[in-house]
């Protein structure tokens, strides 16, 4: 198994043993997580792909890997095109590809614990049109040939204290129970890890960069709950925190518990619960209500305590990032820095706060052409020096008990070209347009996306990712349901209390990348003489935007005023946390345009 070619051959041999003509390998786990534990990194093990979203299909004579526009460059660098066809979504899909490539009468395997019911239906129909069938497996064939597959984490659960949560777990269960009564339902299945973490005010260390624990839960209309978690993950403090109204079971007992809900009206989320959960409920005779997980929206709408905590985390994180920006301004012109050393130094500045629990994702540290790889992950073999006359893009964040941060800055090393500065300014204009947006209650994120793209579009330019994603409260850095995007979501109405990113970008393949990202809070806006309730954004992230990359003449008076006001806020929030040369640098970096 020393090469990815060997692994592909081994999987094909295993498919023959399981009497299958193909298999689908998604990058997810039994909880439909975006970021997964090492034990669930099947796609990476099989193909070498290190991105956070993708899928693969293996047939006897062909294999394909499916990624979206964020990973167009990365997949070609990490996955061997001699063995894998590169497929772009949403332009194509696994179902469409299988319809074209599966043989007549083929049996295509899938793991029902790793796919949604909607995907199973779509793929089943596509294969039926070809005279082939989709077959659920009892044993995942990748697991069968992965000799050193890691075991799931056995890290202990930890209590997320009320002083950070702002609402105790019993109150949250009572709210879920009231919702169940309103839907005439007896219980709700919670399988999304961040939903369970939020509802029970617990956190964990089972997934790198996301403080969640591997568990399932069933919450009942009487406000009691059953939590399914490996026994070794519990301790006395967590048991006391959960109380007698939460019954604890081994995680392995969850499937049987679903089958035992006979005659009950049970809510399961078709987007977040895997097909196997629906199949177990069906088999047990439960009446299934396909409704959104009742935790999703309350989790997205932050309470006052969570908002205050997030602002405290942002102020702390902004100071760490500003120290880093000062450091790189001093050290980069000397030469000798590279992507890895810069990322390590940035993490060290965050560690110096004494409150960092983890990074919120692997730092994207992209110098020159690597900055054009949207979700670039630096490795020894790709590590580039940070060179004069280039852009250095750094997208990073921290997990603190009071909040989760995510911020991108693009830094001009030396003197950038006029084209680089012009395109940086176009991205900045889009960022400002979104930051200043005022919109009626009920507006969806997708309706705002064009604000950030308009100046790039006017020059025949664009970027292949969404403009904004939701962010959790000491939880996932990518949190739904809110998004600012015209594809892959963006149809959720924005509500006061939601936190999103504002991150337009531009990427010139082989040369440089640009992204400017702050987090923003949706807030109510009173408009004098207005007739409708309105919303806007409060910017939460505070770190300088590189003035050396801005073509000031391309900004109108209002945009220049926004930049100056933003930098004045940065100085007010971050300045008191710095001293000496770092403070002097910050004052210069925040000077009026």
UniProtKB/TrEMBL annotation:
<comment type="similarity">
    <text>Belongs to the peptidase M24B family.</text>
</comment>
<dbReference type="Pfam" id="PF00557">
    <property type="entry name" value="Peptidase_M24"/>
</dbReference>
<dbReference type="Pfam" id="PF16189">
    <property type="entry name" value="Creatinase_N_2"/>
</dbReference>
<protein>
    <submittedName>
        <fullName>Xaa-Pro aminopeptidase</fullName>
        <ecNumber>3.4.11.9</ecNumber>
    </submittedName>
</protein>
<dbReference type="GO" id="GO:0005737">
    <property type="term" value="C:cytoplasm"/>
</dbReference>
<feature type="domain" description="Peptidase M24 C-terminal">
    <location>
        <begin position="533"/>
        <end position="593"/>
    </location>
</feature>
<dbReference type="Pfam" id="PF01321">
    <property type="entry name" value="Creatinase_N"/>
</dbReference>
<keyword id="KW-0378">Hydrolase</keyword>
<keyword id="KW-0031">Aminopeptidase</keyword>
<dbReference type="InterPro" id="IPR032416">
    <property type="entry name" value="Peptidase_M24_C"/>
</dbReference>
<dbReference type="GO" id="GO:0070006">
    <property type="term" value="F:metalloaminopeptidase activity"/>
</dbReference>
<dbReference type="InterPro" id="IPR033740">
    <property type="entry name" value="Pept_M24B"/>
</dbReference>
<keyword id="KW-0479">Metal-binding</keyword>
<dbReference type="InterPro" id="IPR050422">
    <property type="entry name" value="X-Pro_aminopeptidase_P"/>
</dbReference>
<feature type="domain" description="Creatinase N-terminal">
    <location>
        <begin position="7"/>
        <end position="138"/>
    </location>
</feature>
<keyword id="KW-0645">Protease</keyword>
<dbReference type="InterPro" id="IPR000994">
    <property type="entry name" value="Pept_M24"/>
</dbReference>
<dbReference type="InterPro" id="IPR029149">
    <property type="entry name" value="Creatin/AminoP/Spt16_N"/>
</dbReference>
<dbReference type="GO" id="GO:0046872">
    <property type="term" value="F:metal ion binding"/>
</dbReference>
<feature type="domain" description="Peptidase M24">
    <location>
        <begin position="310"/>
        <end position="524"/>
    </location>
</feature>
<dbReference type="InterPro" id="IPR000587">
    <property type="entry name" value="Creatinase_N"/>
</dbReference>
<dbReference type="Pfam" id="PF16188">
    <property type="entry name" value="Peptidase_M24_C"/>
</dbReference>
<dbReference type="InterPro" id="IPR036005">
    <property type="entry name" value="Creatinase/aminopeptidase-like"/>
</dbReference>
